[in-house]
Amino acid sequence: MRAIKSSRRTGAVLCTVAFTMAVLLPMSKANACACGCGIFSVGANNLLPSTLGNATDLYLRFDYLDQSKDWHGDSSEPAAANPDKNVRTLFQTVGLQTFFNRNWGMRVELAYWQRHFATLDDTSQQVAFNHGALGDLRLLGVYTGFSPDRSTGLMFGAKLATGDWTYPGFDRDTAIGTGTTDVLLGGYRQWKFGANMGWGGFVQTMADLPTDSREGYRPGDELDAAAGVYPSGWDLGGGVRLTPILQVQASLRQSDSGREADPANSGYQRVLAAPSLEFAWSRLRIDATVAAPIWQHTHGYQLVAPWQASLMASWAL
Asked: What is the CATH number of the domain that holds 111?
C-alpha cells in the first residue's frame, strides 16, 4: 500500500491495521475446504495510489495457505468428520498497476497456483494430488478523481475464466480456476491523523461476484475487506525506511451452488489478525504479512488454515 505523501511512490510506507471478515455459509459432512484466497486481494500487500505521480508499478506476490485443520461452525472438529485432509497452496502472482493521469489507472494480475490436495477416495483410502496451473486473470480499472490527494478511489473490473478447472483430481471447490466470469468491485479510503499527521490509516474492500455458472458450478459471492493504521516508520538511513504494520483482515463468502457444488459445505465468515512489516528503499517496496484467525465460522465441515502468509515486492518504474 502507498502512504499519502508528497513524494513519489518511493517514499510510501504503510503500517496498516486491516480489518477483514469473511462469511462461511452452510456445509455438512462432505468434501469441503474453505480456500479464502480472496483475502489476498486486500490489505497491506496491495498497492493503493500515492498522492503524486503516475508511475507504473510492477509487482510479484507470494501467498501461502495450508488448510490442514477441520472446522465446523465456531470450533474445530476431529479429522474423521471430513474426508478432505489437506489443501496446501502457493500462489505466485505477477501484476502491473499504471496510471494514465491523476484520475484513471488500471491493474492487471495473473497468478500461478501450485496446489496439493489430500482426500479419501471411495474406498476410504487416502490419496493425494499435486497440480500446478495458471489461475484466473484479474483486470481492474481504478478511479481516483474524488479528491486531489487520491485518498479515495474505486476499483472495478472482471475476473476472467482463464484458470484450469478441469483437473480430474480436484473437486470444483478445490480447482485452481472457477470456470466463471466474475465482476470485481471495490474501493478504498486513506487518511492522515495524529500529532503532526504522523499516523495514517486506510480501509479497503473488494467484492467478487460471479455472473454465471460453468458445467453445474457457481462459486459463492465473496466480500473481502481490510482496515488499517500505520505510523511514519523508522528511517534507517540511506533512503531505507522500515514500517511495522498492525493489521486485521476479514472475508465473507456465500455458499456455492449448482449440481457440482456442495452448498451445505461452502461459505464462511472469518476475521484475522495480520501484522505486517514494510521495507522501502528508492523505488523498491517489500511487504511481509502473517495472518491468523481471530474468529471464524463455517457451516458444515471445512478445512481451514491456522495461519497464512504473504510476501509482495514492487518496483515503481
From this structure: 2.40.160.40
**80-128 residue pLDDT tens:** 888 999 999 999 999 999 999 989 999 999 999 999 999 999 899 999 9
Burial of 125 (0-12, 13-18, 19+ CB in 10 A): exposed
- Judge contact between 147 and 124, C-beta under 8 A: no
Q: What is the pLDDT of residues 249-284, one digit of tens each?
A: 999 999 999 999 999 999 999 999 999 999 999 999
Q: What is the pLDDT of residue 48?
A: 77
> What CA–CA distance (Å, rounded) separates 35 from 136?
15
Asked if residue 3 belongs to a domain, the reply is no
Phi-psi region of 276 (alpha: psi -120 to 50; beta: other; left: phi over 0): beta
181 residue type, one letter: T
Q: How many domains does the chain have?
A: 1
Beta strands, E only, the chain: 57-67, 69-73, 75-76, 84-99, 104-120, 126-134, 138-143, 152-159, 182-193, 199-210, 222-231, 234-237, 240-253, 268-273, 276-281, 284-304, 308-316
In the block, residue with C-alpha cell 489476498: 40
Alpha-carbon torsion angle 236, 237, 238, 240, nearest 10: 30
261 within a domain of the structure (yes/no): yes
